[in-house]
Amino acid sequence: MTRTEILARQNALIEAARAAGRAMNSEELKEFDELQKAFEAIEAAEAADHTEDTQRAVAAERERASEINDLAREWGMDDAKKAIEDGTTVDQYRAHVLEAVKASRKPVTASATVTTDEADKFRAAATDGLMMRAGMNVATPAAGAQEMRATSLRDLAIECLSREGKSVNDLLRMDSTDLYTELSRQFYNPTAAFPAIMDTTIRKSIVDLYNKVPTTFQEFTTKGSLPDFKASADHEYVIGGVGDFLLVPENGEIKADKPSTELLPERKLDTYARQFSMTRQAFVNDDIGFLTRVPGLYAASAKKTIDKQVYGILFNNPAIFDGKTLFHADHKNVIASGTAPTQQAIQAAILQMQKQTDQFGDPIYMTPKALIVPMGYEFDLAVIFGSTQVTGSANNDVNPLYNYPLTIVQSPVLNALAGANACPWFLVADETSARGIQVDYLNGNEVPTVRRMEAPGTLGFTWDIWLDWGISVRDFRGLVKNPGTTL
Predict the structure, then answer these.
(1) Residues 353-401: tens digit of each pLDDT
(2) Is 465 helix (H, G, I), strand (E, B) or coil?
């Protein structure tokens, strides 16, 4: 009971006895005494709490004053007493001290000069010089690269070894085979200049040449990234199947709806690799093109392999995530009879694509993006998309495909796959409408990685070159196939 309730009960006992014209009986007296004891216990507890609160407040105040005095002594402030009397908190006084210190001191501008080590300058000049000598374009050559571009591999090796303490006279007396053997011993030396220069030159040439490979798969596929090699379903759910908005009458009830979801197809990465070596013959023959040409060929091969695999999926029509072939009557993405990409055939493919519905039966607002054709239709397509009137029309009919926003992608890979047989062609939708084929890379890295390593039984320098990728069909609705005809 609270103190108020106790007092109310005691008063009630007194009034009850007075109304009856008598004194309180023994039971009422006993209850009155128990209530009085409870009242005194409450007062004692409140007094104790008040004492504890007072003690805590006094301790907090002492701590506040002590911390303010400490800050004032540390930073030479003379207003600690005033801050304590004004009730300033420690945080407020600390901010006040900081502002006072800032105002009394000029900012110090720290300058750091990063110098490039002479060894790094030499390696950069040698790398750019080798690339320029091999005929590659170097946008901003390092200082000294022009002078290094005429240096042979033998002279470069002697320069590198002499900088590392070897006798120039001894190096000059070595024939090229002995010098190459001496260089090979530096494989595990992390500070060795010659292998480091070769590594950097190879990496730069790989990036440069890889980007120049004239593949076409990237013009109509989407690019993705995966963090590991585990085969797992794509956890990017498609959300859809929501109901249409319903009319709500006055004071009517809004009906609940639950969207449907569908898991997208599985994606998986694999590793593709090759190995190449700088042979002793290449060094002796001063084959400077090895450092750019051979790695570049392997880099190009990696990109061409992806190109072939993508077109192989289109041409070979494999089974996909639902167990049916990519182009299937149930998928509504294949034209029944093959023709060349004429005006009528292209329009039929566009209409076929635009009639697609999504996983939940709702219409898709499809935007055709690219027309994928084999080599041989370039000039016919130029007429189809560049003429204002239908070709051969006696009435000058308007050409609906004039300047139609389709990218024409031609690939000789389709011709090679078809041989003497009918060669199909394809229509691909914009990825915002429906994803077709996707190429995934490990952590988004689409340029091959190169690593120098030691191969058992191999005399000299050996490199591994690899790239991790995976190709998957994300949605058949973004593709339409015309079986084509023979070329």
Answers:
(1) 999 988 778 888 899 999 999 999 999 999 999 998 887 777 778 889 9
(2) strand
**Residue 319: strand, helix, or coil:** strand
292 HSE (CA, 13 A, CB side): 19
User: In DSSP terms, which residues pair with 188 in a beta bridge?
Assistant: none
d(CA 49, CA 43): 10
Residues 6+ apart with CB under 8 A from 181: 459
- What average pLDDT score do residues 254-270 get? 71
What does 380-434 look like in DSSP terms, one character per residue? HHHHHHH-SB-TT-TT--B-TTTT---EEEEEHHHHHHHTTS-EEEEEEE-TTT-
- Which residues does 22 contact at the CB level (< 8 Å), separation at least 6? none
Q: Which DSSP helix (H) or strand (E) runs through 260?
A: strand 260-267
Residue 114 predicted with pLDDT over 70: no
Helix (H/G/I), strand (E/B), else coil: 365: coil
Report the C-alpha gap between 379 and 340 in whole angstroms.
13
Query: CA 342, CA 252: separation in Å to the nearest integer?
Result: 56
The rounded distance, in Å, linking the Cα atoms of 473 and 319 is 10
Q: What is the DSSP string of 96-146?
A: HHHHHHHHHSPPP-----PPPPHHHHHHHHHHHHHHHHTT---SSPPTTHH
Q: Helix, strand or coil for residue 26?
A: helix
Q: Cα torsion at 211, 217, 223, 228 (round to 10°)?
A: -90
Q: Read off φ and ψ for residue 2, nearest 5 degrees.
A: -85, 170
Short-list 274, 276, 318, 273, CA closest to 294:
276
CB-CB contact of 338 with 483 (8 Å) = yes
Give the residue with greater pLDDT, 171 vs 334: 334
First to last CA, the chain: 102
pTM of the predicted model as reported, rounded to 2 decimal places: 0.66
User: How many CA atoms, within 13 angstroms, populate the side-chain half-sphere of residue 388?
Assistant: 1
Helix H or strand E segment including 442: strand 437-442
Sign (positive or negative) of CA dihedral 413, 418, 422, 426: negative
Please report which residue ranges of 149-234 form alpha helices under DSSP H.
153-163, 168-173, 176-184, 193-212
Task: Please enumerate in sequence order all residues whose Cβ is within 8 A of that of 394, keeping only pairs 6 or more positions apart, or say none.
Answer: none
Average pLDDT, the chain: 83
Give the side-chain half-sphere CA count within 13 A for 307. Answer: 23
Residue 270: phi and psi, rounded to 5, are -135, 160
What residue type is 160 in one-letter code? C
Within the chain, how many helices (H) and strands (E) appear?
15, 11
Residue 432 phi, psi (nearest 5): -75, -20
